[in-house]
Amino acid sequence: xxxxxxxxxxxxxxxxxxxxxxxxxxxxxxxxxxxxxxxxxxxxxxxxxxxxxxxxxxxxxxxxxxxxxxxxxxxxxxxxxxxxxxxxxxxxxxxxxxxxxxxxxxxxxxxxxxxxxxxxxxxxxxxxxxxxxxxxxxxxxxxxxxxxxxxxxxxxxxxxxxxx
Length: 164
Known about the structure:
Layout lengths: L11 E4 L4 E3 H5 L4 E5 L6 H19 L3 E6 L3 H11 L4 E4 L4 H5 L13 E5 L5 E6 L4 H29 L1
Parallel strand pairs: 3-4, 4-5
Antiparallel strand pairs: 1-2, 1-5, 3-6, 6-7
């Protein structure tokens, strides 16, 4: 896992529609919840995606953007989104380049670890969770993301006022 406070690596991947999407593009819409998962249509990944789908309206209302990354193709992602009515962006990383940059490769480079990062618009990692088997941990982390960002903003404001 990347360290809290570090810069999130820039990337460009194809999304479920076959369009190029970069980290910068995603962050233009607001803070990002970037999650990594093993595979479309795998039962734990279905549970995780459906859990995220249920809270997606609240996350959007809080100004958060959500994108998932796995090794499957854009067409697999499109089928996965349609079948389970998923609103979140899904990104394809078949070469595991981004998976490697975000340090979520499985043992011996196989598979993908289930991880979620909270990235602010300045590309700073403000939160992270790694839970390979407990998909609900990621949904709970996402629900706490807005509170975490507000706490960080309040602390920065307090420090700025203390210096002035």
